[in-house]
Every structure is written in structure tokens, then in C-alpha cells.
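Q: What would this complex look like in 3D?
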Amino acid sequence: MINAVLVFNNSGQPRLTKFYTQLETSVQQRLISEIFTLVANRPNSSCNFLPLPPLLASSSKSSTPTTPHNDTPSLVTYRHYATLYFIVISTSTESPLALLDLIQVFVEALDRLFENVCELDLIFNFETLHATLSEVIVGGVVIETQLDKVVEGVKAQGRVAKRPVNEGKGGLNLGAFSTRSRDFP
Amino acid sequence: MFEKSLYDLIRGLRNHKGNEREYIQESIKECRKEIRSNDMDLKSTALMKLTYLEMFGHDMSWASFNVLEVMSSQKYRHKRTGYLAAVQSFRRDTEVLMLAENQLKKDISSSTPTVISLPLIAIPHVINPSMANSVLSDLIPRLTHSQASIRKKTIVTLYRLALVYPETLRPAWPKIKERLLDDNEDPSVTAAIVNVVCELGWRRPQDFLPLAPRLFDLLVEGGNNWMAIKIIKLFATLTPLEPRLIKKLLPPLTKIIKETAAMSLLYECINGIIQGGILEAVEGTAEGEDIAHLCVGKLRGMMVIEGDANLKYVALLAFDKIVQSHPHIVAVHQDVILECIDDADISIRTGALNLVVGMVNNDNLTAIVGRLMRQLRNSPIASATDVPVNDRARETGVIPVADSDDSDAEESLRVEKKSNQAPPLPADYRISVIQKILGMCSRDTYTNISDFDWYVDVLVQLIRVCPATKTSANLDGTEDADFSTSGNHGDISYEIGQELRNVAVRVRSVRPEALEAAQSLVLVEQRDQMFPITGNGGQGVLECAGWMVGEYADLLTRPDGVMTSLLHTSASHLPSRTLAVYLQAIPKVFASMAGNDQISWTPQRRTLLTLLMARVVHFLEPLAMHPSLEVQERAVEYLELMRLASEAASGTETGNDNGDFVDPPLLLTQAIPALFTGLEINPVAPGAQRKVPFPDDLDLDTPINANLQHILQQAELETISDADEDDVYQAYNERIGTHSEPSISISAADRLDTPKAEQPSSYQNATEDEYLDSDILARRKAERRERYKDDPFYIDPDRDRDSGVSTPLHNILKNSNGEELDIDAIPIMDLDLEKQERGRERDEAHRQPKRKPRRNVEIIVDETLGPDEATSSRDGSRPDLVRSAQAKGKKSLLEVDSSGLGSLSLEDDGAGTSKLDIERREQEEAEMAKALKEVERLRLEMQRAAERIQARDAPPDGTLVKRKKKKARKAVMEAPEETREVDMGSLPEGDHEEGLAVKKKKKNKAKSEENAGGDAPGDGAEGVVKPKKRKKKRQALPDEPVAETGSRDIV
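A: Here is my prediction, written as C-alpha cells for the whole assembly.
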């Protein structure tokens, strides 16, 4: 299952924190900080999987070989879009490559909702950001992977606010989507 | 009062660059005021702002009651804010949780789908067992809600309920299963169920075997790759239980592997085949050969594909899973895997590192360790100052700083980006590499090592690449101490030292070399050379090195230098544990230096020794006041001993210069050495001590001397200074006479004969110069030359320079390769002539790996008594590591514990198990339904008869019955009104029911008229509470099981 979804920007400012277990605020911040340290230094060619941050690594080695899976978070997947990092922490029951596509679905859904989404949209509409995530993941289990249905689900909750007009400076369109196609619609 | 919206807050933050902290404190203060307001809009806005600030680590637990207030608002907008705040801020100890329960139940039963969603999403975050029991009855009816989005969320929420309250599954699972088996169910819902089943599956695979046919169909149908991946993952846990599945699965999986365009699905197919044990199952058949070839071929393809590091990473993960069971498969791809050890990406490196530990053997150990060493040596040690640069403020919490450049934040997210900096080699990674090297080498008491000289050199080199330790942090008792990964010392160099000590103790033949290494580590003048240039890394090794130079002092080549280093002023600043070991080593070295009774007691010798003892005394004196008790005690003991020895030395007459032999003082030659020599120390297995049987007559309870107290008192009265030195002197001499043992623990012959047995080392060391420092290398070369001096087949690269003698072959090589030829540098390919044979005998090969004939090195194994207990690990040489690994059994941070599910069977074994409320209610309801059907029939008959009489006026006794019934049904049957209405309408049952449905419709119409004013259906809820209740009574019909109505949801 998925243990946490985090979004923060290039300087480590959180934009979305969702922990599917109850965690002390200070520990949450420390974890974000550790992951940011890990992710911020990765070169271009690196893969999208992080080694476990120290907070999680300390207890990860106790896995028993008798069961194929366990409850311990063992996978930290991330993607980096423009100014934002999207992080998913999960156990071994999730497929690493599929999680990458899931993040892509999430971001594409945001893009549809905000029409060419950028970090500012997410800052000012963080309730919508949470709502979108809740249409993809509930309680750490993925409930929807289809873009249309995610968008539909968020729209059913009410109008999605646009970013305040005077905040945007226009000309936000920077290139097209990354070419890697998703494995599920 | 000026009120800020969330928008204002964020804008304000962005306008207050530099003093965000004050701005935030100010804002929180405002929020505290606003949240107490009676204006729900204001309250909810304040809550929203607090939730936003919570993301940056600002506590909002004080507002939990206000969260509840906002949650209970009638407006959806407020509700949503409230629920979000609850999800983000409620913790395990939040007290208002009890009060939230009713609100959750109420909203779950709401008629508006968006409102239902809110508690469904929130429950997984706040649930506890007692609450689970309570909301379960409200949740289950939602499984048949008309909207797919509600159904799928309910399913997942029920799963999270089951995690804290496993009994949930008893009523819920049959209904979920029903959904799964329904072909007409919405694909999204099916996928959500599969996701949940996949999570449940590995806990209790046997319960999910009956679902295999349906899951198989879903897999073959295809269409949803995410779901297919989950199904494959689930099947991988089912196949070990049901071998017949393998035959069935193989064709579709092969088909997917060959045809799918989705890399993730392809990978998970291969992964599933590996993990599900399918490879073993079909081994030997033509089909099996094909599939194995296909899978491994694809994996290799992933490793070598250019430009996609992700595939490389996941392929390593897959290899890692098979390395234990199928080492031969992995070994074939050793080449590409070893490449990954040097990958620029730390994740891939770590993956490869974990993998090579599993595939190391006698043949490739040197090569693998060599690669790792080269990596450690060639990348600079990250200095401590590098780290905090990217570390956000840790203790203070993060302030949402104003973005330095707003245009950044406006950049479109459409472009996926990755930064371009090169990664430093973090200390954690270094430590783990060193640990892996130590682990690989010491595995099974050094099975894989054939050249211990090499190992000693590797250990010495490892010290130099040690990362700086965080001892200061650990001393503070900060949390970091709990998370330090390396052993009980928190210092990897201590572990290296232990290895060095282990080798010295276990492998006698290499003891001189190990001692040489320990000596050079202890020598103060070599400190710069032997230890990392920056930081304080590597100091932990001194504890073991100090022990070694003391214990095997006779083997030291430079005892004087060692003694000087042990007595160096810098030594007294060492950590107390190391210092204590040093203190123990000092008299040992002294004993070996002074203890020779074959040399005459000349004035010269006396002067030298007196001087030496004076130095020892000088060193020990201040330590008698050391804060560490251990150090203090040892210092005091040896101080007294040295003073005695000093007096003995000065009291013994020296001989004249005429050459007559004069006996040195016995205290020096006999007494002191006897303290430290005796039986040689052997390694003892962990736990062996516990197996030593207690002697029957052992009595630890009776006091040895009942008069102890009295004696002590007497002793205090006597003057201490009165001690007769002659007596003491005498006593020492007597003890020697009776108790001393031969002082030489290892004979010179012992030391000489074993190294001769060495065979020429292979050229696998060819790349040594890449990972060993030049001084170590030079020594190795010199040693090698020495060793093969008389070997005509050894080509010495340097010899011709000295002697001018060269072979024709050498000339040819020299001419074609140029002057700077180094035979050692020629890479020699690992020609595996046994490969083909191995392929044939694969079975035996990987069950009983062939061991290369090892060199004649005797390794002392652990001493133990009786059979090995399960508790002592196979890796007996590193008990400390094992212990620390076991101690780490605690729960991980983000872990969601699902172990409770393990004990609950989903099979309907019915009898014996206590029934849940909801089950009891269901049963009651069934009985009630029967009775009611009868009553209703009669009632309807009456109603028909009195068609024109108002239908609402039910007879009083009838109401009573119905109220009871309502209570029973509410739990299971509650569906939103609208749905029910439609369902009723479409019920194909008898006329009487239809009649009722019509009636109800009328009522609903009336209600909607009442509510015409309110735009949201929830708004008028209070106004219609009464009619609603009555309606429910009416509705409570003997209608069909819930699931059936669910399938007719098409409104």
C-alpha cells in the first residue's frame, strides 16, 4: 500500500503532505526534510527511486523472508516536474514502474483541472489538490487510475478555482509533456 | 477586525520576505480569534489557514474541537474544510475523536454523494477499533450505493477498518466478494477491489484461492494494466499454495510478456514468474526453458538498455529476489550487475550492492571487493559541512519562505525535470559499503577468503576511507543515537577493527601481518598516513588495534614505537573505552619489552627500564582521576604495579661491565609477564557461555566469610602505609614459582611454517592499484617479490631493471607494449572452463556450490558446547552485528500494521465464532422480516380495503412493531433515499409492494416541496427530520437482499 504522498518544490517547501498513518508533525517535517535532501542532489540521468531516508531505513532490514511482502515501507518513488517534486512512499505490494505512471496520472489530472497547471495553482488551491489526490488514493489504496474519472470526481465536488488573475504573469506554457507514455489510461 | 482569507495569507507570506516567522505567529494569533467566532464562514476560513500552516509544521492540535465544529456545518464547503483539517491534524491521541464518531456516522448516511465521500476519505486517517465497530454498520450499506465512486471508496475504507478491527471482514467480505464476482460491476470498482484483495492476499493467501478463476478472467480480459499488475502480484502469492495455477498462468503471462506495450506490466509479469516460484515448477521442461530464457533475457535487456535508469533499477530488484533461490541465473549476468556498482546513481548502486552480497563466492570476492574499494577510495569523503546545506531547519520547523523568484512557481509542471548536479557519496552509503565488504568477507567464518594477507590490506585501506563519525551527536544523547546504523559503537571503524582482531585471533598464519597492521595503526607518527585526512573517521579501530598490540606484544616489530604511542599525550584524550584498552595494553607491551630473562641486568638495561617505567607512571598518574571508572580502576592498578616494579628495578644490584651474567629482578621477568600470558585466547561462539553447565556444588548464596564486616572494620583501623614491601615482593615471587606458565604463547617455529604453504596468488589482484594506496601496494609487491624469489616461473616486473636478465617472451611483450609494462596490470579474463559442465549439473551446482580448493589456511572456528542453537546466527563471526540487527525489530515509521488480519479467516466456518453485532442484527432481521412480511401482507390487505382512508395513519400497534424493525434494518439496509425509491419502483414483487412504493414516492414529493427553498439537499435537513424518520419506518420493507438491488442501479 501507499504510506505517504508528498509534494514539495525545489527548495523543499511542502505543497502537499498526506500521510496514511498518524504521525507527529515534527516527525513529518523531518521525513520531508530527509527526503528532500536525498532528492535534491540527484543528477539528470538518475532513476526515479530513492534509497530509504534514514528515518525509514533504520527499521527496514527486519523483513522476514517467509512472507513475500510486509508492512514496512520499502520504496520511495519520485518524479520531478518543473519546480515540484512528487514523492510516493509505499510498501512492496506496489509496483515501482506503475507508481511512476500513477504520479503522471495525478499530475495530468491537475493539469486538466487547472488548465496548464503550475506551482502557484497548487499553492492557492491546496484544497483542490487534496481533493484530487483523494480521487486517486484513499487510505493508502489506489482507487482510480483513469484520468477522466479522476477529473470527473473532482469536478463533481464543485467548481475548481483558477489561480488569482493578478498572480499569473501569463506565458506559462513551457514545452509539452514528457514523451514517456503512461501504461494505463 | 481585518480578516484574511487563505489567499490573503499566502499573498502576505510572499510579501513578507525575511520575517515570515513573525508574520506566521501573527496570523496564527488571528486564527485563534477567528476560529472562536460564531460565524461559520470565518471559522472555516481560519481553519483552512491553520491547515495550510500545519503543512509547514505549525501545530494545530489545539484547534481539534473547532475542527469538529466545522465538520458538522451544514454547508458542504465548510464540511470539506473541516474534514481536510481532521485528516491532516488528528493524531492518535486527539481526544475529540470520540465526539467525531456521530458526525461521521451521520455523514456516511447522507443522501448527497459528495458528502458521503468526505467521511469515507477521512475514516482511514482517524480510525480506531472502537470507532470501527461503530461505523461499520453505516459503511456496509454504502457498498451498494448507486454511484461507483462511493462504492470503491467504501471498499477501501472497509479495508482500513479491517486493519484496526479485523472482525470487519466477517460481514464485509461476502459483500465485497459479491461485488468482485459481478460482471456488470463498474470496472473502477472491480479494480479497487483487486487492489484491496492484493493487500489482503499476502497475509492470508489461502482465503483467496477460491477467487482465482475470477481473477484469472480479469487478467486475461486485460484493459486495465494497473489491475493486471495487482492480479499478477496476488497470483505470485497464491501459486505456492496451488501448483495447478502455474500451468494455467503460464500461457497468458507469456503472452503478456511478448505482446504488452506497457513496460510496468512486462516487468511485473517477470517478477511474478520469479516470485511465484513458476520457474522452479516448470524447470526441466521445454516450456520451462523457454520461459526462463524469456524472463532472464528481458531482465538483461532492462539492465543494458541505454537511457532508462528506472529499468536498470527494477531489474536489479528482480535479480535481488532470485539471487537466493537461483544464484546461477544471476551469476550468468554478473558482468552487467557489477557494472551497476559504479553507476553514478546512488539508488542503482545501492541496489547492486545488496545484490552482490548475495552472489559473492570464492571466485569473485576479490573482484567485487576491489570494485567497491576503488569506489570508496576514488570519491572524496564528504565533509561534515556539506550536509547541512540541503538540510532544512530541523528543530525549528520549516517556515514557508517567500519564494525567491515568483516566476519559478509559475513554471508549467508539464515538463518533467531532473537536476543536473553530481551526487556526493553520502556517509550512510559509505558505511553501508564498508559493512557489506566486511559482511561478504567474513561470511561463514571466512569461507570465501583465500588470501588473508590481502584481507588485512583491505581492512587497513578501509580505515582510510572511513567517513567521519558523529560521536559528538551520539554523546549528547540525541535521537540520532537511536538511528545510527553501525553497531553498538556508532562507528564503522570499530567494526573494521573487530575484523582485524578476528583475523588475528582466528588465523594464526596471518597473525604477524595483522599485528603489523595494528602496530602501524597505533603508531602516532603514522597517524596522518593511516587515517582519513579529513574528519575524525577511523578512530574506532584503535580500540581493537590497541588490544591486539597488547595481546600479541611479542610479535611487534617496533615495541618501542608502540609503547611511545600508547604513552603519547594524545592517547589520554581518546574515548574512555579505547583508553581503557590502551591501559591494559601498556603493561602487556611493557612485559614483553622488559621480561627477557636471558639478558644480563646491566646498568644500561636498568637505566632504560627505569626510565620507561617512569614514563608509564607519568602517563598513568593523571588517569587515576579519570571520570570513567573503568579507566580509573585500571590506571590505579597498573600505577601501583609499575611503582612496585620500579622499586624492584632500582633495588636490584646490577652487574659490572665485566660480562658476568646478573639475573634481572624476578618481578620484571616473571611476575609481570605471568599476569598476561597463559592459555591463548580462542574465539567463543555467542551463547556458548550459557551452555556451560553449573557445577552441582556451586553455591553463590552463602557468604564466603561470614565475618567479612568485622574484618573490614579491623582493616580500616590498621595503618595502610604499614605494608611491608618485602612481604609483597616475596608474595609476587612465590606466585611465580607455583603458578607461572611458559611465557611464550607462540613458538617461533609456529610463526615460520605456515606462510610457506601459500600458493601463488592469482592475477585477479591485477587491479589492486586501483583501490589500495600506494604504500600498501608497495609493501605487497615487496612481499610478493620476497615470496617468489626462488620461483623461476614468477615474472618480476622490476627484476630486469636490477639484473638486466629478461626472457625472450618478456622482450616481445616489452616491445609491443612499451616500456611501462606492468604484468600485474594486465587484466586477465575470468575463463570459466567449468561453465558448460555446470550448466548440465546446475541442480547440484547451486545446491552445493563447489568450493575451490582453498589454500592451507587454518581458521579457528568458534568454540562452543553442544549443538548450535537457533539463536546463534550462521554468521557467527559477527555476533555484534547480528545482535544489532535483531534489536531493530521495532515498527517502522510509516508502517500500517496489518498483522491483525493474519488470524482472521475469511472462510465461513460459522460455528464457534462469536457473532458481531451486525451479524446478530442481520439474523434478527431475517426472522423479523419473515414475521413482518406476514404483518405487512395483512396490513396491505387492510389498506386496500380502506383505500381512500389516509394511508399515513397506521394503527398504533403496527407502529410499535415497525419501530423495532427499523432499528434492526438500519444497520444493513440503509441506502440513500433516492436510490431506495427507484429500487422499490423496479421491484418485480407483488402488487402490494408496488402500492407502497407509490405511496412513498408521494411522500418524497411532499418533502421536496417542503425543501424547495434550500439549494443543497442537506440544508433543510433539520426541517425534515421528522418526516424522514417516519418515511424510514415505511420503507422498511421486506425487500430483496441488498446486493440484488445494487445490480439494478441503472437509474
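A: To summarize the key features: Strands of chain A lie at 2-9, 14-19, 49-50, 75-81, 84-90, 137-138, 141-142. The longest strand of chain A covers residues 2-9.
Q: Very helpful, thank you.
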